[in-house]
Amino acid sequence: MPLELSPLYGEVEGGQDIYPNYQHPHSHDGAPAWELIDTDHDNCGDYSVTAAPVSHGVPCVDYVIEERARPGRLRSKIIEPLAKRNIVVLKQAGFEIQMKCMAVIKHLPPSEVFTFPDGTKVRGCIHSLLLVYGMRLR
């Protein structure tokens, strides 16, 4: 049953329904959380906005603005010696300079493996630092 918009509640055309999520990471003690902006679905950038109830003298919610985690830097101290050791064969394979090989390794998905000509294997995500977590504002 479609409802009519009410100017008394600030409703606007084209809005979205927001439903409580009891399995959200910000949900505690049986209280729900509401994902207001989700970077995976809203194409809004690298952040999310979540609201959750707060124990307070009056009913209120806490808003959490959180940047998405991103991959860390390539550990060149580990990868560069491998690239130098294999540079002759890598050049024959089309890597003019070792930095191109390092760029390929940096962008590997976690499930893929890069195999150097000498047989050394590097798995995606192992070569970089842990995720760099973004800021969280409350």
Description:
The protein is an alpha+beta fold. It has 2 domains: 61 residues, no CATH class; 69 residues, no CATH class. It is built from 4 helices and 6 strands, in the order E-H-E-E-H-H-H-E-E-E. Strands 1-2-3-6 form a 4-stranded antiparallel beta sheet. Strands 4-5 form a two-stranded antiparallel ribbon. Helix 2 crosses helix 4. The longest helix is centred in the middle third of the chain and has 10 residues. The two termini are 37 Å apart.
The number of helical segments is 4
Strand order of the biggest β-sheet:
1-2-3-6
How much of the residues is beta strand, in percent?
Answer: 15-25%
Helix content: 10-25%
Largest sheet: 4 strands, antiparallel
| Number of self-contained structural domains | 2
Structural class comes to alpha+beta
Detail the poorly predicted runs: none
Could you give the order of the helices and strands? EHEEHHHEEE
The tally of strands reads 6
Q: Please tell me the overall pLDDT.
A: 77
- The radius of gyration is 24 Å
Q: What is the 3D shape?
A: elongated
Q: State the end-to-end CA separation.
A: 37 Å
Describe the protein's topology.
Blueprint: E1 34-37, H1 39-42, E2 47-54, E3 60-67, H2 76-85, H3 87-92, H4 98-106, E4 113-115, E5 121-123, E6 136-137
Antiparallel strand pairs: 1-2, 2-3, 3-6, 4-5
Key features?
single chain; 138 residues; alpha+beta; 4-stranded antiparallel beta sheet; two-stranded antiparallel ribbon; 20% strand; elongated
Entry summary:
With 138 residues, this protein is α+β, with helices and mostly antiparallel strands. Helix content is 21%, strand content 20%. It is elongated.
